[in-house]
Amino acid sequence: MFKRLFVPVVSINPERCLLLIAAFLISAPVFAQELKQYTIDISKVRPPEIKDLPMLGGSNPQNQKIAVNNYFITKGGKPIIPITGEFHYTRYPHQYWDESIKKMKAGGINMIATYVFWNIHEEKEGVFNWSGDRDLRRFIELCAKNDMPVIVRIGPFDHGEIRNGGIPDWILGKPLTVRTNDPLYLHYTEILYSEIGEQLKGLYYKDGGPVIGVQLENEYQHSASPWGLTYPGQPYDFTVADRDRSIAQEGVGVANANNPYAQLGNDHMRTLKALAIKAGMETPLYTATGWGHAAVIPNETLPVTAAYAYPTWTTKRQLSPFYLYKDIHQMPDYSPVRYNPMDYPAFAAELGSGIMSTYSRRPIVPAESIDALINRCLGSGANGIGYYMFHGGSTPVGEHYFFNDEAYAYPKISYDFQAPIGEYGQIRPSYNRLKLIHFFLNDFADKLAPEVTVLPDNAATLKPADLSELRYAARTDGKSGFLFINNFQDNAVNEDKPNVRVTVNTTAGKITIPEQGSLTIKAGENCILPFNLDINHCQLRYATAQLLTKCDEGRDKYYVFFPVKGNPAEFCFSKAGTAVQVISNATIKRTKNEQVVKTLPDQPAEFLLTAADGTTTRILVIDKDMALKANIVTIRGQKHLLFTEAEALPDEKSVELESVGANEYQVSLFPSVTTVPDLDGGIIKPIGKSKLFSTFRIVLPKVDLQPQVVRTGTRKASVSLPTELPKGLNDLFLKIDYVGDTGMAFLNGELVADEFYKGIPWEIGLKRFLNKPHDDLGLYFRPVMKNAPFIVDLPPKVVDELSKAPQTLQIEKIQFVPEYKATLKF
User: Fold this and answer.
1) Which end of the chain is more exposed for a tag (fewer CB within 10 A), N or C?
2) Are 517 and 500 within 8 A, CB to CB?
């Protein structure tokens, strides 16, 4: 029996009811997810004690001095942060060196490092070859032409996945002990150094040239390579002295500090430096790989560090510590080290911007892992970063053998390294992600370099597997600085971190970022947020946006930011001495002491700052997707940003545009220009009307080539190639989608390219092979077996297929992909 209930009769508005329900549903997640507040205290920071390193440094003919202290490097008295990209000239056709150097510079690289592989230059005793792709002098001259400083890594031992680590085979048969002060070994080393010195004559920094540094040896008393002269199944015989066999590692790692021959190792490095100087190699910087207790020359060499997140010298996937912030100035990665790290700047000069595949291990390095690693290193105190490799290549073939490290089971030709610039000059997504940090460093190094690392309280106990905790750190002088946040961990499933708010405690009070609301740090993303930043005498208390670049000179001063991905941008300015005027797509809220600007989502915004002295600065805010298309160009003396899907390579009066697969695309310029630039190679038309950008449509003649593929059995195919590179193209890529073990490409009976399958298409750049007589390109594939040692690294789909069959080989699609070329002239 039901009891009747009496309720008052109320008039209900249906529209209002629906609005209340909608408001509740929208706000429900906010109530469900609690605000996560974090704190970092910089109030006790004091300026570091700076000590010069007088044994390092030097000047050029213009008396511009490079100097080193225990925290950073200066050039002309101004702190700099070197961004070093490894590029091996002998692994790339010399016809395209200039283009590649331009690509590296356009990507924000401000220094190139390159190995001189002894065995490639002196394969036969007493016969040195410095011609063609081995022309070291020509390569350095092109670096000079492009205003690109160089560190030359002179060996004698290099590693670099080269046979014997670069030591010639004929050295093995000599009555000497390698990598020691054995007189006969030093005799041959002196000959090598004299040859290198002759190639570099007149190109040193002291002469006005680009060679600012020399690296002596490599990972000395830390690692080695196996001799190439070996037998299948035989244990490795390493390129080390007998005394060092027990401490030689196969790759980069942590080493035991108990080395009874440590002093002998330092003495050998000192001897190598003396031989280098005798050969004329006098440079401001002498570097040494200092990780894992490797040998250095105290106070005379700059020890550099490394971090490889996806090593192939381990037997399984693992979570690395390289995405957790620490103070690497005090505790370098791969410690213990043989030097007092507080006596030198933290220069993380060999960071894995990819990794080489070996036959047994083939991990794919995701693009977002690389800029996350750089964010972590900078937030941890690095005042120099470097990539191994930044530009991939192809290992040359010797007269009697492959120069690659066959004993370690690397590809015989390919040295792609999954680098930001690939084996054939391809631009990878990691290249564009890294540009965002490089542009920032090139403009703000003088501010960041003197700042020290401050960590939150939980940093010391945080482990790589602690994925739920926010990872953050600050670089600061105690008053201003940058907040670093990273939400990436290798070999793990990363998840969004919503409702994040960070409070920075300073001597002048607290800065909460943001003051109202919160941030969501997307999975795999990272950011660098400024606080108490001076923008031409206007005080920015904080921003939830990252600095991309600035222009403080010329007729148009501006700063460019992009917000944390997935969030609107918020800028908080002091009212004192700063006037803020919104121009477009933003709102402003003023309180007694502050002015808060919030940008509208998904569209560029602009506002204007005016300081008390009348200085005006434009602030442009773009989303991260647009920032990834940014390029820096100079037009009639004014710095501009050029946004495009194509790759832009600036020269003195023009910009070369290279576009893979697309013959139509847009370019936009900020600040806008008043005239339409000329275009060689196609049609350019202005489109749209915007006060912010000048936007143009580019249309190039379409090239439509279909390869003629002939299948010969299940494992072979041949592809007919054009006789020459079609007009209007920079390159023509052969893209091969397949599932298998290995692929090999033959031209005129010679192996010219190879690849270890790892789940992504195989690309071969063809321009180096065209314009000369050639047969069809022959392709040979081998199936992947069910019990292959690299199964752990393959896509789940392939692993599932192998659970149903003992082997699989699928050649799915072979196609040509054109890379178009055009030139903008202003």
Assistant:
1) N
2) no
Phi, psi of 421 (to 5 degrees): -115, 120
Structure tokens at 648: 């832009």
Residue 711 φ/ψ, nearest 5 degrees: -90, 130
pLDDT band at 689 (very low <50, low <70, confident <90, very high): confident
Residue 33 binned pLDDT confidence (cut-offs 50, 70, 90)? low
Report the alpha-carbon distance of residue 267 to residue 564 in Å, rounded: 49
Find the angle CA(365)-CA(371)-CA(372) to the nearest 5 degrees.
85
Three-state secondary-structure class, residue 652: coil
Q: Reduced to 3 states, what is the DSSP secondary structure of residue 711? A: strand
Token pair listed for 750: 């010679």
Using alpha carbons only, what angle is made at residue 37 by residues 31 and 38, rounded to the nearest 5 degrees? 160
Contact, 329 vs 372, CB < 8 A?
no
pLDDT higher than 80, residue 30: no
Task: List the Cα angle 132/650/620 in 5-degree steps.
Answer: 150
Q: Give Cα 571 distance to the centre of its chain.
A: 29
CB 530 within 8 Å of CB 482: yes
- What is d(CA 503, CA 393) in angstroms, rounded to the nearest whole number? 46
Domain with CATH 3.20.20.80 in the chain: 58-442
| Residue ranges of the chain that CATH labels 2.60.120.260 | 709-820
Q: pLDDT for 655-680, tens place per residue?
A: 999 999 999 999 999 999 999 999 99
Dump pLDDT digits (tens) for 187-219: 999 999 999 999 999 999 999 999 999 999 999
Range in 8-22, 535-549, 744-758 with the lowest mean pLDDT: 8-22
Distance, CA of 606 to CA of 354 (rounded, Å): 37
Confidence of residue 20 (pLDDT cuts 50, 70, 90): very low
CA distance 486 to 325: 9
Dihedrals phi, psi of 206, to nearest 5 degrees: -65, -20
Q: Assess whether pLDDT exceeds 70 at residue 422.
A: yes
**Contact, 268 vs 181, CB < 8 A?**
yes
pLDDT digits 0-9 by tens, 787-822: 999 999 999 999 999 999 999 999 999 999 999 999
CA separation for the pair 443, 551 (Å, rounded): 9
Helix spans in 201-346 (H): 262-278
Would you call 551 helix, strand, or coil by DSSP?
strand
Tell me how crowded residue 478 is: count the other CB atoms within 10 A of its CB: 17
Q: Tokens in use for 154?
A: 């002179």
Q: How many CB atoms lie within 10 A of CB 318?
A: 13
Region label for 536, one of left (φ > 0), alpha (ψ between -120 and 50) or beta (otherwise): left
pLDDT in tens, 446-460: 999 999 999 999 999
**What's the mean pLDDT in 704-715?**
95
Please state, as a whole number, how many other Cβ atoms lie within 10 Å of the Cβ of residue 132: 12
CB 599 within 8 A of CB 659: no
Query: What is the longest distance spanned by two Cα atoms in the chain?
Result: 110
Q: Is the pLDDT of residue 23 over 60?
A: no
Query: Cα separation of 406 and 404, whole Å?
Result: 6
Overall size of the chain counted in residues? 826
Kindly give the pairing relationship between strand 73-75 and strand 78-80: antiparallel
Looking at domain 58-442, what is its CATH homologous superfamily?
Glycosidases (3.20.20.80)
User: Are the C-beta atoms of residues 673 and 656 closer than 8 Å to each other?
Assistant: no
Closest CA to 617 of 542, 550, 549, 532: 550
